[in-house]
Amino acid sequence: MIDTHQHEDRKAAYYTLGCKLNFAETSTIGKALQERGIRRVRRGELADICVVNTCSVTELADKKCRSAIRRIRKQHPGALLIVTGCYAQLSPEEVAAIEGVDLVLGAEQKLDLLKYLDEWEAGNKQQIITCRGRDIKTFSPSCSSDDRTRHFLKVQDGCDYYCTYCTIPAARGPSRNGSIDLLTEQARQVAADGGKEIVLTGVNIGDFGRSTGERLLDLLDSLDKVDGIERYRISSIEPNLLSDEIIDFVASSKRFAPHFHMPLQSGSDTVLKLMHRRYDTQLFANRVAHIKRVMPQAFIGIDVIVGSRGEKPELFDETYHFLESLPFSALHVFTYSERPGTAALKIPYVVDPKEKHRRSELLLNLSESKLTAFSQANIGQTHRLLWEQGKGQWMEGYTENYLRCATTYRAGAIGQVEDFCPMFYHEPTGLLTDNKTLPFLEQISKQE
Questions:
Q1: 311: left (phi > 0), else alpha (psi -120 to 50), else beta?
Q2: Which sequence ranges are marked TM in the entry (predicted)?
Q3: Residues whose CB falls within 8 Å of the CB of residue 335, separated by 6 or more in sequence, listed in order
Q4: 45 in Cβ contact with 13 (< 8 Å)
């Protein structure tokens, strides 16, 4: 092990691409290096070590990772460049071949980065250190701490689902999780540090308990009792694992926000079967209906993939009309991307790129209209709002049901939770606001 004093005055830069889970893990890596005496680089400084935590959810994500790695190498020409994350796990040789990459760490090695840094600096110059997806076994606790108001707590990792379009099981390994006691203690620490909101992150959160024999509902109940945390959000959960019991718990809890995000992926039962999803549209519709029945003002976000293999025109039409019928709040629209080694490549029907774009635009327009209607329905209603950031003359934050709001800036308000009653919806910015802030927003819109 390298002596702490050896790292004095050394600086590290951190770059995260992809999901909130990656952000939580990067934060944990940064904290470990800081405890070793390696501080975070300041603006304008050159780093001695660069850590790049990559994503590989689509072909475009891979491209963005390669571009970022090359840019970082130019920005910090003398730094030790370490690349980890899903792209490094799935394509280690490809990553290692990028000029300037020194060390490639897979998913199992990511949060043991200090060990491999020590070995590198002791003379072991092995460039690629990874393992097969099935051999990823460790659950490494992670919680982002870069934001003084919102934290991302990793409660689960990996996935035992093998959807035909997805590489996550190979990138993240099998489903596993931390214990309720461990995760509750992390939440207590967030509260002690002044954190107000925790977002529960994972690859398949609804599968919590796979490695400890515990239940997700019991985790939620334990977290709900932690004093000091104003609210929790569940980042994303499979519809077949979001039970009515969990929905009812959120509706009656002290701290869990009326905010749900579910991956639908397709509104066609035929396509869902091709994807090997574990539910049908009826189950999904039932989940949405139950949420709205017990929490009428709940925010419901939905993931959907357009242009997947097998999605013939009439099947996309089924998806559009199904979504149109649901009282959701917003869509996250993903364009299907071919991933090497996935079973989807065996499905014969391929959607033309231009048609993918057309379908994506249709769903994005539908999402915008739904979000506008949802936002306007909340005008004149009082919400609990956490102010998260200031922007000159005004500050912004989110309500418990994930509406983005703004008001005039007040010193000391950031990080505080207050009652807020929005009176206007400013469609160009997507902000709900009061009459004091509306003129500022309209002025900026005219300038842009």
A1: beta
A2: none
A3: 58, 305, 306, 307, 356, 357, 360
A4: no
Q: Which amino acid is at 342?
A: T
Q: What is the pLDDT along the chain (448 residues), one digit of tens a residue?
A: 344 344 458 999 999 999 889 999 999 999 999 999 999 999 989 999 999 999 998 889 999 999 999 999 999 999 999 999 999 999 999 999 999 999 999 999 999 999 999 999 999 889 999 999 889 999 999 998 756 678 999 999 999 999 999 999 999 999 999 999 999 999 999 999 999 999 999 999 999 999 999 999 999 999 999 999 999 999 999 999 999 999 999 999 989 999 999 999 999 999 999 999 999 999 999 999 999 999 999 999 999 999 999 999 999 999 999 999 999 999 999 999 999 999 999 999 999 999 999 999 999 999 999 999 999 999 999 999 999 988 778 899 999 999 999 998 988 899 899 999 999 998 888 899 987 776 766 665 555 5
Superfamily of domain 142-376: tm_1862 like domain (3.80.30.20)
Q: Say how far apart CA 253 and CA 370 lie, in whole Å.
A: 27
Q: Measured between alpha carbons, how far is 196 from 418 in angstroms, rounded to an integer?
A: 12
Inter-residue contact 243 to 262 (CB < 8 Å)? no
**CATH topology for the 11-131 domain:** Rossmann fold (3.40.50)
**Is 221:267 a contact under the CB 8 Å cutoff?**
no
Task: Answer whether 378's CB lies under 8 Å from 403's CB.
Answer: yes
Domain ranges for the chain, please list them. 11-131, 142-376, 383-445
Q: Dihedral through CA 215, CA 217, CA 219, CA 225, nearest 10?
A: -150
- Non-local (6+) Cβ contacts of 367 within 8 A are 330, 331, 333
Tell the residue number behind the tokens 């079973």, with chain if given.
343
The set of residues, in sequence order, having a beta carbon less than 8 Å from that of 317 and lying 6+ positions away, is: none
| Cα 350 from Cα 363, distance rounded (Å) | 19
Alpha-carbon distance of 246 to 137, in angstroms, equals 28
The residue among 270, 277, 280 whose CA lies nearest residue 343 is: 277
The radius of gyration of the chain's CA atoms, rounded to the nearest angstrom, is: 23
Would you say 214 and 170 are in contact if contact means Cβ atoms under 8 Å apart?
A: no
